[in-house]
Amino acid sequence: VLGGGLMRGALHEIAATGEAHMAAATGFALGVTTLASQCAVWIAEDMAALESGAPYGPGLDGFGLAPERLVTVAVAQRRDLLWAMEEALRCRATGCVIGEMRHGALDAVAVRRLSLAAAETGALALILRAAPEDDASTAATRWLVDAAASMHAHPHFLTRLVRNRRGPRGQWILRWSDSDGRFTLAAHAQPVATLPVHRPHRAVA
Fold first, then answer.
1. What is the pTM of this model?
2. Distance between CA atoms of 162 and 190, rounded to whole angstroms?
3. 145 near 159, Cβ under 8 Å?
4. Reduced to 3 states, what is the DSSP secondary structure of residue 72?
5. Which helix (H) or strand (E) holds 16?
6. Is residue 82 a contact partner of residue 26, using CB atoms and an 8 Å limit?
7. What is the pLDDT of residues 126-145, one digit of tens each?
8. At 70, is the secondary structure helix, strand, or coil?
């Protein structure tokens, strides 16, 4: 479906279906970040930190992302978040940039600039949203994420790919495996969107 994984050098949106599932959407974004990059920048609005809290070191370790690999930035307003994301994406030392925002529509021009900045450096850009929106976007993909029930210790995610500029959409229950640090289909342990040898620029999702 993804043609080899989430495309690097592009913008992707990850949204919780509601506030109750924000932790699941955050976990999904962390898993993608862990697979995609050795160095990441997490930028959040002040209100996001007040409502959801800041990234927690032991929790990051649980997804294989050592805290020293993550730079966190807090901003006061939406326009500051989008500006900081663009600046971070233009830094070639950064492999992935996450912008966490609350409710509200995205500025189409700013989102376009983020897509261009990611394309210039090959970085992975993720916008993490507290609720889904149907606004126009240049994002390569848009995901809706819920927490899924599990009888095991591994976190499970109900993921819905609702926009895919390069292929079909779909829905899957994914399990994050701490032992090998990847997502697998919960129904059977097959890797999802493994990295093909002819597309080394793509992330594994």
1. 0.84
2. 22
3. yes
4. strand
5. strand 10-16
6. no
7. 999 887 777 777 889 999 99
8. strand
